[in-house]
Specification:
This is Related to HOR2-DL-glycerol phosphatase. InterPro entries: HAD-like_sf, HAD-like_SPP, HAD-SF_hydro_IA, HAD_sf, PGP-like_dom2. It holds the Pfam family Hydrolase. The protein contains 9 helices and 9 strands. By secondary structure, it is α/β, with parallel strands linked by helices. The chain folds into 2 domains: 69 residues; 126 residues, HAD superfamily/HAD-like (Rossmann fold, 3-Layer(aba) Sandwich), CATH 3.40.50.1000. The longest helix is centred in the first third of the chain and has 18 residues.
Length: 210
């Protein structure tokens, strides 16, 4: 969701600063890059050394609510919606919890999709295919008929491993990092994509000239 539909970069940076101070983390800027597209619980295991399941759940919730709070501090504009998202919004799978996703969507004015998969709905997060397989199942379609829109290499790999076609947007990672994950198409953002629906069939036009 973050980096594809919404931009919460200032909030994410603020949350990692808070947790970095609390857990004595070094190289927070590098952690932010490595953590994108990975479930919060897995990031907290890896970077903060939290292993107790109950503590992980508590801290994951605290981290994600800190993103929402930090995104509005010091004159920041809050979590924002990325260009052309409302025109292209589809059933959503994301690496955050339901609590954070609900708060982020509310902040941007995006209506929560009917088919929705959050971090706690699957045992294994991206790059494992489980999240997108679950999303396709909730939609009642074969995953091979799905288009995954992703900004993070781990998410791209998840979609490809699930058997979906993947459209990558360059909203959070370099073209080189995205290309290494082997998506089917790459565009700067969703303004380079248009969707039309005719008789229940979705037609997609992608402008890869940029």
């Amino acid at each position: 969701m973050d980096g594809t539909l919404t931009d919460s970069t200032p909030g994410v940076e603020g949350a990692w600063e808070t947790f970095g101070n609390h857990y004595g983390l070094q190289n927070v800027d590098q952690i932010i890059q490595l953590a994108h597209g990975v479930r919060t619980v897995e990031n907290l295991k890896r970077f903060c050394g939290i292993t107790d399941p109950e503590e992980l759940e508590r801290e994951a919730t605290r981290f994600e609510m800190e993103i929402v709070s930090a995104s509005k501090r010091n004159g920041r504009q809050g979590i924002i919606i990325l260009p052309n998202v409302k025109a292209t919004l589809a059933p959503l799978q994301n690496a955050t919890t339901h609590a954070y996703a609900n708060a982020a969507l509310e902040n941007t004015g995006i209506q929560r999709p009917t088919a929705f998969v959050a971090a706690e709905d699957v045992e294994r997060g991206k790059p494992d295919p489980a999240p997108y397989l679950a999303g396709a199942q909730k939609c009642g379609v074969d995953v091979s008929a799905c288009l995954v829109v992703e900004d993070a290499p781990n998410g791209i790999r998840s979609g490809k491993a699930a058997g979906a076609k993947v459209l990558a947007v360059l909203t959070s990672h370099s073209r080189e990092a995205v290309e290494a994950a082997n998506p089917d198409w790459i565009v700067p953002d969703l303004t380079y994509v248009s969707f039309t629906v005719n008789d229940g069939i979705v037609e997609l036009t992608i402008n890869e000239s940029a």
